[in-house]
Known about the structure:
Elements: E1 4-7, H1 14-23, H2 27-35, H3 41-48, H4 64-77, E2 81-84, H5 89-104, E3 109-112, H6 125-133, E4 138-142, H7 149-157, E5 161-165, E6 179-181, H8 197-211, H9 223-232, H10 239-254, H11 258-266, H12 276-293, H13 297-303, H14 308-343, E7 352-355, H15 361-375, E8 379-385, E9 388-394, H16 401-406, E10 412-417, E11 421-427, H17 431-445, E12 454-457, E13 459-460, H18 468-475, E14 489-503, E15 507-513, E16 520-524, H19 531-535, E17 542-553, E18 556-568
Parallel strand pairs: 1-12, 2-3, 2-4, 4-5, 5-6, 7-8, 13-14, 16-18
Antiparallel strand pairs: 8-9, 9-11, 10-11, 14-15, 14-17, 15-16, 17-18
Amino acid sequence: MAYNWVYQEPEREKSVSAMQEQLGVPETIARLLAIRNINTYEKARAFFRPDLSELHDPFLMQDMEAAATRLAGAIRSGEKILIYGDYDVDGTTSTALFYTFLKDFGVDVDYYIPHRYKEGYGINPEGIEYALKEGADIIVAVDCGITAIDEAKYAKEQGLDLIICDHHTVGEELPGAVAVLDPKRTDDEYPFDGLSGAGVGFKLVQGTLEKLGLEKEVGHEYLDLVAISIASDIVPIVDENRIMMRKGLELLNENPRLGIRALLELINMDVGTLTSSNIVFSIGPRINAAGRMGDAAKAVELLIADNEAEARTRAHELESINKERRSTDSETMEQAVEMVNQHYDMEKTASMVLHHPDWHLGVIGIVASRLVDQYYRPAIMLSTVDGKVKGSARSIQGFNIYEALKQCEDLLEQFGGHEYAAGLTMSRDNLEEFRERMNSIAFDDLSQADFEPELKIDDELDLSELDLKFWKLLSQFEPFGPGNSRPVFVSRGVDVNGIPTIVGSGHLKMTLSHNGSGPFDAIGFNMHEYMPVIRNSPQGGIDIAYCLEENYWNGKRTIQIRLKDIKVNEEETVEV
Length: 576
């Protein structure tokens, strides 16, 4: 996919030279800081040296006093506690975090995660019945519960205390629980509302430790799980999340828990090399696969494994599930692309609504995202479950998919989500009208320019500038994610050394140099279509947009170029 390159500019250009002088860093590094609104020495120090002492007081969160007091009392009196989680990465890491924390205190604790397809998202009567059957006194809901109005009432009627730790958007009414922890509450003045579900759970751990008369630092050992949740749930890597993510990565690299170590060994990833990107693309999908394919409890079992044999067994189990998920994913993508090619003319298409009764609900969200990447149109993938059409929607910049679904709510039985992703359920009878209306809404809201994706560029870079000092400074921008994206650079007039090759499933691999620099290995995932551009270009005839990353292979670390886009350098191209 070709992009429009849009250069980011700092709000205050003069801060670039000021930061360069104060910190003694190259201009490019100073510009990267300024783009992130880091324009003073104090902000730079906090950015490069995030410290756990800077985490916010958990008792600034609404209802923390009630939640921590009740949980500490339950620990002291030996009550039974049920952790009620969600089936995605954030939910399973949250569940594992609380389960491990309570087990460490000798608490009689159990957990419950609803089946993705049989029960669906959130607290439900089946889970409450399970808690009653197991003799639980308290339910602690993690990464869910903020909309459980009726369920909270039912739990209370049954004599169960409910504590909710959630981070999703709050409705007009709060559940009637002992405590509702959610930094997105309109009456909450907590300084940061971007926490993951596990992040909110961690704040409750901190508050509970304080009520038990222990130091909050005791809870830092669980930040590895919080880091996995932060990276996988795509929450902003700023404020507390950046601090917790940095410490969590240290734990994962220095002494990973048994389940994570077993998983790393299985996928041939060396301990000590884990980055936020590795979590997003390698660890997170494997944990998520369990819930996508049915039973998320298998992911929790990996994360709480307390001996090596069990950890290895669970790791192999997850890897097997993930292979099944990838196979289903690939097959579904092929079918979806075939449908698009047969039934859609991109000149007349503003959105894609695809339906197949046998598609697996666990992968259609992933495939919808890939269709958006390939065609840069809003995509909705639908399957049929128990006679109802259900599915996932993904969108592009400038088109709020949730608001679009709201305009179709007379055709829908249920829907929910946010600007870029949503889920929905409808009758099969409404499918064709829904397809037509969504396309009409998208045509009204989007212009032709909206179908041309933008690639935000941080700065132009001469590869000859890329030395050890520059790389060490750039590495300190980690962890990357929303709010602190991996910098994207442009280099113009780049030389291709040797013959480019296609590796794997359509990945472009080659060696590049620039203005006398040493050679750099470059990889462009799913960029095989750029091969003719490169072959027909003279030396110095291409411009590249890319990220820089560290590649670790056979015990050797090298700097690698991760290509994002390639353009012909018109000045260097000679017409024949």
